[in-house]
Amino acid sequence: MRRIVAGLVSGLWVLGCAHAAAPDPYPSTYRAPASAPTLIRNATVLDGAGRRFDGADVLMRDGRIVAVGAGLSPDGATIVDGSGRWVTPGIIDVHSHLGVYPVPELDAHQDGNEATDPVTAGVWAEHGVWPQDPGFETALEGGVTTMQILPGSANLIGGRGVTVRNVRATTYQEMKFPGAPHGLKMACGENPKRVYGGQDRAPSTRMGNVAGYRQAFADAQDYREQWREYEQELAAWERKGTGRRPSDDPAPVPPKRDLRLETLVAAMAGDIQVHIHCYRADEMALMLDLAREFGFRVAAFHHGVEAYKLAGRLAKEGVCGALWADWWGFKIEAYDAIWENLAFVDAPEGGCAIVHSDSAAGIQRLNQEAAKAMERGRRAGLAIPPERAIRWITSHAARSLGIADRVGTLEPGRVADVVLWSGDPFSVYAQADLVFVDGALAYDRARPRGAPESDFLLGQPIGGAR
């Protein structure tokens, strides 16, 4: 039994070039809702892949996009008139704290920062998500169908993020995006050194920040090597065969499992998407060097008010910038911002700009945040048409989360996450009329009584049962 268990545990580890990712001990139980075939007819369509179709139809069936084009046959589908309206993929927010910092904002609900150690890579944001957060519904009403929920930025390495579907649920696992990789939240700059320096602990400087990252990943390298050695010893022991093995030759003992180092090993193996809270250009460059030193890849820098200074390098290295349109100046590392940041990060060939929220309010209007960045780019001489800008809140976001093969565009075969807008989504007057998740109608602005409501709000005097 000991040998069987040892072999099983070892097989779960990410080791060397030929590796196998550990199965998720908290698997998704999400089930796509039943959906009727639907044809949205005669709308302006932005497909999230860089194309615009005027006077076009969108056909959804069995939870998938079937086709986009003019004059599509409904073939029994329910027809929705899209005249004068626009269609986009469902919006994806790569930086949310819904569920871990829910409303009402009470001390009992503060589950986003495990601020007890600067490296808490072993914690998972999903284990703090409260599915009854009313913010999920208001995000849905803004067209958001998928989001990454992250730990906060108190720590150098704050733990794993989780990608969820924006559906009503009792448990977070009923929201968890099936097969989506975890994210790893890291933070550079002021926050970690302020939190721990204020406790007379390391890090208290940016020097200490970098030393902390390096030591954590160096420990993870050693841990990975311990498992490699164990694998080799176990293989040699098994090759001896039962008949030739002395009775006093027990199976090798595997290393003690360490959840913190397990996460970092998985990040180095590419099984976890690394997302880094980082404002200054010099620190982003430093983190790219850190990634090269320890063999992991940065999926996106978040906030990045100085990302424009590194736009070419980010594009060349395939790193996204998850940014705000105009938040700046609230601390010194957020000071050297420009309005054109998003547009400049998007401009180089291969550039990957993303509009993110980091806010329960901002997540409700990501389309308007993108519109502000479009206008600033236009004033700087960059022509950014709607079919390009929509990628900032759809396909680029999906790319950074490792789910671009399933969501983020309206290409045939993709999951039918679709928003029908009352008009141009980059207008301040536009509202989400209909929101489909997996082809099922999840929100209808004309029938708000059918909207999913948080159980927490039911019976409350404000915002509860209508």
What brief labels describe this structure?
466 residues, alpha/beta, eight-stranded mixed beta sheet, 11 helices, 16 strands, disordered N terminus
Fold blueprint:
Blueprint: H1 2-11, E1 38-46, E2 52-61, E3 64-69, E4 78-81, E5 86-89, E6 91-96, H2 135-141, E7 144-149, E8 157-165, E9 183-187, H3 190-197, H4 206-239, H5 259-268, E10 273-278, H6 281-294, E11 298-303, H7 311-316, E12 320-323, H8 341-346, E13 353-355, H9 366-379, H10 386-389, H11 395-401, E14 418-421, E15 432-437, E16 440-444
Parallel strand pairs: 1-4, 1-5, 6-7, 9-10, 10-11, 11-12, 12-13
Antiparallel strand pairs: 1-2, 2-3, 5-14, 7-8, 8-9, 14-15, 15-16
Description:
Helix content is 26%, strand content 20%. It has helices at residues 2-11, 135-141, 190-197, 206-239, 259-268, 281-294, 311-316, 341-346, 366-379, 386-389, 395-401; strands spanning 38-46, 52-61, 64-69, 78-81, 86-89, 91-96, 144-149, 157-165, 183-187, 273-278, 298-303, 320-323, 353-355, 418-421, 432-437, 440-444. The protein contains eleven helices and 16 strands. It has one domain (38-208, 259-450): TIM Barrel (Alpha-Beta Barrel). The strands form two sheets. Strands 1, 2, 3, 4, 5, 14, 15 and 16 form an eight-stranded mixed sheet that branches. The chain is an alpha/beta fold and 466 residues long. Residues 1-19 have low confidence and may be disordered. Helix 6 links the parallel strand 10 and strand 11 (298-303).
Q: How many strand units? A: 16
The low-confidence parts are 1-19
What overall form do the CA principal axes indicate? globular
The string of secondary-structure elements, in order, is HEEEEEEHEEEHHHEHEHEHEHHHEEE
**Name of the CATH superfamily:** Metal-dependent hydrolases
How many helices? The count is 11
Largest sheet: 8 strands, mixed
CATH class: Alpha Beta
- Could you say how many structural domains there are in total? 1
Which structural class do you get from the secondary structure elements? alpha/beta
Mean pLDDT: 93
CATH fold title = TIM Barrel
Report Rg: 24 Å
Distance between the termini: 59 Å
